[in-house]
Specification:
The chain is α/β, with parallel strands linked by helices. It is built from 12 helices and 16 strands. It is globular, with a radius of gyration of 21 Å.
Length: about 425
């Protein structure tokens, strides 16, 4: 069967607007570590996918899944060692006050649950998000989505703030001054009779394009939220599980403690597993008034997978690897910027990094068309990356955590060649 035939079948069954990467869709059939293989047997270096967090089809994770699936998989309303052991192992990676967990299947479910808990505890209905964000695809979260078009328009109980971007702001302000935008959003909610429930952000601001924010910004913003009786929800779907290198969780880079932390994609290395970790005193009161259970979230197989992922991160020292390889990549990207005027800014940290592309360094005009061309040329040269940002001009590179210096050299060399070609 040809790829064109498969694409036609897909379009007929799933619709023409169901998205695909690249101008020429990629038909993948196998994954191993940092590599994926297409239907013709060609190998690609995966510098995009954070779902296979510890590497595509990691043997330890696959073995844990298969072993438990051979023994028992059942509803979560029975006692089972796996779910308790997983919750203990997971919460041990957080600050002491974040000591209870609830499990579900997707990041959308996790954020939805966190919103419910925040509404219960705050007594409010209002939420603040960034003005270019995405946290899931339920009806509630669609109302909070500001980065993509949705049928559900932004609700009257939603306010959005612009995340600081020290590269693009012509007159950079202090952290406290930027955070005053959050205070203003709270006042606007209150002026309309709406009490704040929570402030929800991705702690690396990935959809926003990995902007560099001033030190202390997030803490100052959260202080305003707490003073208004709201909760801070840290979305760790993308920066969590050691990806940033210096810390296990993205929020730790900001010197702030969340009330709720949401996780998804990387938690199960491709298996549908997600969760909410909460500070002491939030889960029990909520559950006493609103019974929460999830048939599949944290089932024996999922918990075995989650445990295996945490074991691989620890045994293979993947957080340390993220720091070491990520530091090397950052230095080399800055060298690339010296050779290519199209690079306006180098972004990110650890194994989540990017470069903002501009057509003119003085005006900082986004090089949106060139960014798309580069992504497709990289794919033709055997490397998978993507793009983010409000102008879709930031190259998004976020490989599995087993990414090595040799992998980085292949990425950097190919990127250098492609940038020359585009320039």
């Amino acid at each position: 069967m040809t790829d064109n035939t498969l694409l036609a079948r897909r379009t007929r069954l799933l619709g023409k607007h169901f998205p695909l990467f690249y101008e020429k869709p990629l038909h993948l059939v196998k994954g191993e570590g940092v590599w994926v293989f297409d239907a013709d047997g060609r190998r690609y270096l995966d510098v995009y996918n954070n779902v296979p967090h510890v590497g595509h089809c990691h043997p330890h994770v696959v073995d844990a899944l298969c072993k438990q699936a051979h023994i028992l998989n059942i509803h979560t309303r029975y006692l089972h060692e796996n779910i308790v052991a997983f919750a203990e192992r997971l919460t041990a990676t957080f600050d002491d006050d974040l000591n209870m967990a609830l499990f579900c299947c997707t990041g959308t479910e996790a954020n939805e649950l966190a919103l419910r808990i925040s509404r219960f505890h705050s007594g409010g209905m209002g939420f603040i998000v960034s003005d270019h964000s995405y946290h899931g695809n339920s009806a509630t979260l669609a109302e909070l989505t500001t980065a993509f078009p949705t049928f559900e328009k932004k609700g009257p109980h939603i306010r959005s703030v612009r995340i600081p971007d020290l590269y693009r702001d012509p007159t950079p302000r202090s952290a406290e001054d930027y955070a005053s935008d959050v205070a203003a959003a709270i006042r606007d909610l209150e002026a309309n009779g709406i009490r704040l429930a929570a402030f929800l952000v991705d702690t690396i601001f990935s959809t926003e394009g990995l902007p560099r924010v001033p030190a202390g910004y997030l803490k100052a913003a959260v202080d305003h939220v707490h003073n208004a009786g709201g909760l801070f929800i840290a979305d760790e779907v993308q920066p969590g599980f050691g990806r940033m290198g210096d810390h296990m969780w993205g929020y730790q880079a900001h010197g702030v403690l969340p009330d709720l932390v949401t996780m998804g994609k990387p938690m199960g290395n491709g298996h549908p597993l997600a969760g909410v970790v909460a500070r002491d005193g939030l889960i029990d009161p909520f559950a006493a008034s609103s019974m929460y259970f999830n048939t599949f979230g944290g089932n024996p197989v999922s918990s075995a997978v989650g445990l295996a992922v945490l074991e691989v991160i620890e045994r293979e020292e993947l957080q340390k690897n993220a720091k070491t390889v990520g530091t090397y990549i950052q230095a080399e990207l800055h060298k690339l910027a010296e050779r290519h005027d199209i690079i306006g800014d180098v972004r990110g940290g650890g194994l989540f990094f990017g470069i903002e592309l501009v057509s003119d360094r003085k005006t900082k005009e986004p090089a949106t068309a060139e960014t798309s061309r580069i992504i497709n040329l990289m794919r033709e040269n055997g490397i998978l990356i993507s793009k983010i940002g409000r102008d879709e001009n930031v190259l998004k590179m976020r490989p599995p955590m087993v990414f090595t210096k040799d992998n980085a050299d292949q990425l950097l060399s190919t990127l250098d060649t492609v940038l020359k070609q585009v320039s």
